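Energy-coupling factor transport system ATP-binding protein: structure tokens wanted.
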Amino acid sequence: MMQTIAQINNVTHRYKGAAENSLDGVSLTIKKGETLLLCGASGSGKTSVIRLLNGLIPHYYQGDMTGEVTVNGLEIAKTQLYELAGIVGTVFQNPRSQFFSVDTDGEIVFGPENIGLAPDEIKARKDNISRQMKLDKLLCRSLFELSGGEKQRIACASVAALLPEIILLDEPSSNLDMEAINILHDIICDWKRQGKTIIISEHRLWYLKDIADRDIYMDKGRIVSEWSAEDFAEISEEETRQLGLRPTSINEHYLALLSDNCNAHESRINISDGILFKDFYFSYHRKPYILRRKRFSAADGEDLSLCIPELTIPKGKVTAVIGSNGTGKSTFLRCICGLEKDCTGVIISGGSEYRKRQRIGFSYMVMQDVNHQLFTDSVEKEVLLSMKDKDEKRCLEILDTLGLLRYKDTHPMALSGGQKQRVAIASAIAAGAELLLFDEPTSGLDYAHMKKVGELLRQLADSGSTVLVSTHDPEFIEQCCDLTLRIKNGRAVSLTF
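Answer:
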């Protein structure tokens, strides 16, 4: 019989300032060496279970709690967080929240250094983890230069370097491209072979169907259903939709489309009414200048992080910007909306030219890390802030459409990752810009809200807005995108209808 390594007994929890319980009478027994999948809608309680097991509830997140949690024989409420460091490792949904270093190598060895390992052992662990997780191209780099998916891979490596018995993963695939998801799949399989106990909170189910031993479905802070791997594999696509879950299998065409080895060629369809992006050049490695700032141009060649001499996108369409992690998708969007001040480039639309500052008013961007653009103390105020003319009725309609109306008076930072994402999307809709930019808008979203976001983007395009959306999400592309723009090494290599 498998040994019990973690036990949650009748836990009810409510975050400080929240109107509803995050967990309601949750009981769960976890066996040593078991791989457990937590699934359910955003805000259903999955992340709160993760926080129970790593001690962040009750030691970091304040609130009211009843019940008991034990991990590896330790009662969590009476155990300091540092005592759990070598037992439980966590990869958070937003990897930035767990970084302590400024470079990748330092982050990977941070944990082993802090538990006092010998230098030779620290180096051996870094080398082994880097080899297993194929991190050669990410070593000796600044964390600030990495894409969201690359940061997620470093976060996984930093946790693995501690060799914990229990590994907790909160939406680990949310920012990853297809290649990185396959690598993550193999890493989890390797941890499983090593006998690790793995608990995964996840919306994307297709890459885990051959890994999880048990599948736990949560709703409104409760464990509603539980399946063995065999029983879960028998659930139909219709049943998963009814439960608000994403499918357990993906259309092979869209998986292939998102592969970095895809051979799609640029469409020759004539674009009669479009937005022209001209002379978009940018580099993260600017050379010092003495008298005046040097303007980037195509002549800078390989030094450029972004090199798009000319590109036309059709108006009134949803264009998926695809490509591997770190290839320049987010950089392109940031340059369009003016976040990268040194970027050259002109947008031409309807006979008007938009340069630098003018691009800011022409476009509106929802960032990949939405924490950077949440400023107010309530969801309603956040959406009203983006409106040129305050319209409370329209604001409430948008919140209702996105399933956020009941949170209108809630502080945005008290929401789950998926709920924060929807708040940022609500602000983008309310802004009413001609060009709307979305950087991984379905990251961390469940099926129902992914579908709602897709429907909203379609409505925006149908009403005349032009939408550019950076995404790794095959389900989302299939649902709402009209064409795909592939970015590779900062270059626009194909535009496919």
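Residues 4-250 form a domain with the Rossmann fold fold (CATH 3.40.50.300). Residues 178-193 form the longest helix (16 residues).

Cheers.
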